[in-house]
Amino acid sequence: MAAAASPVRAFPTHARPDRYFPSQSCEEVRRRVTQCVERGDGPALVVAAPGVGKTMLLEVLAEKFASQLSVVRLDALSICNRRALLQALLCEWGQPFQRMDDGELQLAVMSYVKRRDVAPRGFLFLVDDAHAFGAEQILELQGLANVCFAGHPRVRLVLAGGSELDELIATPELKAFNQRIAARGYLAPLRPAEVGEYIRAHAAAAGADPDALLDRDALDAVQQATDGVPRLVNQLCDHAIMLAIETGAACVTRQVVENAWADLHQLPSPWSASTALSAKSQASGNPVATGAIEFGALDEEFEVAAPQVEIAPMFNADEALVAIRTAPAAVNPFLEEFADEEVVLDRYASLEAAFRASTPRVTNQRDPQFARTLASFVAELEGPDDVVSARLHLHSAELDEDLVLEDDFALDLPEEFALDTPEIEPDILVLEDDGPVAEAPVRRQEYRQLFSSLRRG
To answer: Which H or E run includes 156?
Structure first.
């Protein structure tokens, strides 16, 4: 075959910028990210499924800006934490990174980013598989991207990763970083028409004749097996060429592509089941269920019964008013007869008599008459509660009358407690001294001096 004579591999397994295929999806994302990097608008985000072309796009960007910016390639899969990120940057620049703590590493990276003699126009960080990063690595890159000089950022950042990268950026910890993203691009697989163009472009880049390398059926088989994923296309076509060379085939046919797919994945080709079912259907004359949903007009016409819909009656206001007027009157809940009162027995009432019997008596020694009166009053209270309350009211009234109306009310106190209180009129104010004052004798000489002073006036 023509590919056997070519020393260049037509379908390489690693990304090469010279083999970049400008598909519609990839070219649109490339233009958007390129404009963001040139203007220094902010971080750019590239999201794609595995094998669609993220790494190829980063290689193309690195080749384009190699003469303008200092390009730094980072693989997030080999960077486990923030310290490893700082060490990876210093290692990329050829700077010492061992036996340094986190603070020293951060200062070393920050000081190198500010060096204009190393990168006059700044740096370009291209991070592949950025979905493997954590929030701390993203925040560290954000801090470096915030460094500016003369209004231009010293670090331009492009993050490429899977769909998990979108979820990572949407976390609350990275809200500020999410707001700074200036460009977002989403890569899609190759369209069916682009798969054939992709294969022809790679075959031509290797110096082979695309028409002589793969026939038309082989191109359709590759598209059907890979669903337009560039990585799978390269893998399948490369293995199919190897099988064709081993068997001495003139070109890669559909059968060779099927054998290559089965050899790579150890599984039946995705079109084998559908072909077998189609052959069985043609032999029996009856359609075989394949689990696929077909759209289009039906061969037989079916009568579909109209659904039974119950229509609610129209609302009549007059009937509603009549129903309200004829409604039974409301029942007054307060007119209901209450049940008989429940008799509550006080099981502790008998303890009162026992307490009175065991209570020690106190005798008033200062006023025996008052003590006898109080004892007789307490004795009369020993009875039912209604009698006790009546007697208590009567005695309190009599006691008030005795205290207020009787002027000769007095207590018979013992002699040792008797007080010398003179009888005084109600309207006379009596001033008493604290104690008796001793009388001093008066001399005649003092009288003479007093009278002589009175005569002189």
So the answer is: strand 155-161
Q: Which structure tokens are listed for 33?
A: 């990210």
pTM: 0.59
Instruction: Give the contacts of 163 (CB within 8 A, at least 6 positions apart).
Output: 47, 49, 131
Lowest-confidence range among 80-94, 231-245, 330-344, 416-430?
A: 416-430
Q: Are 117 and 123 within 8 A, CB to CB?
A: no
> 3-state DSSP call for residue 143?
helix
Residue 358 pLDDT grade (very low, low, confident, very high; cuts 50, 70, 90): low
Q: Which of 104, 175, 108, 105 is nearest to 135 (CA)?
A: 175
SS3 149: strand
* Position 157 pLDDT exceeds 80: yes
Measured CA angle at 176 (ends 172, 177), to 5 deg = 100
What is the enclosing helix (H) or strand (E) of 302? none
Three-state DSSP state, 234: helix
Residue 96 has pLDDT above 60, yes or no: yes
Asked if residue 191 has pLDDT above 80, the reply is yes
User: May I ask the CATH architecture of the domain 191-267?
Assistant: Orthogonal Bundle (1.10)
Closest to 92 in 3D by CA, of 155, 48, 23: 155
Is domain 24-186 in CATH 3.40.50.40, yes or no? no
Residues 318 and 449: their CA atoms lie apart, in Å, by 126
Question: For residue 276, which of 268, 331, 341, 415 has the smallest C-alpha distance?
Answer: 268
Could you tell me what percent of the chain has a pLDDT over 90? Answer: 46
Domain boundaries, the chain: 24-186, 191-267
Please provide the size of the chain in residues.
457
Alpha-carbon distance 181 to 158, whole Å? 10
With tokens 């007697």, the residue in question is: 391
**What is the rounded CA–CA span in Å between residue 252 and residue 400?**
133
Q: Are 161 and 58 in contact (CB under 8 A)?
A: no
CA distance 254 to 236: 12
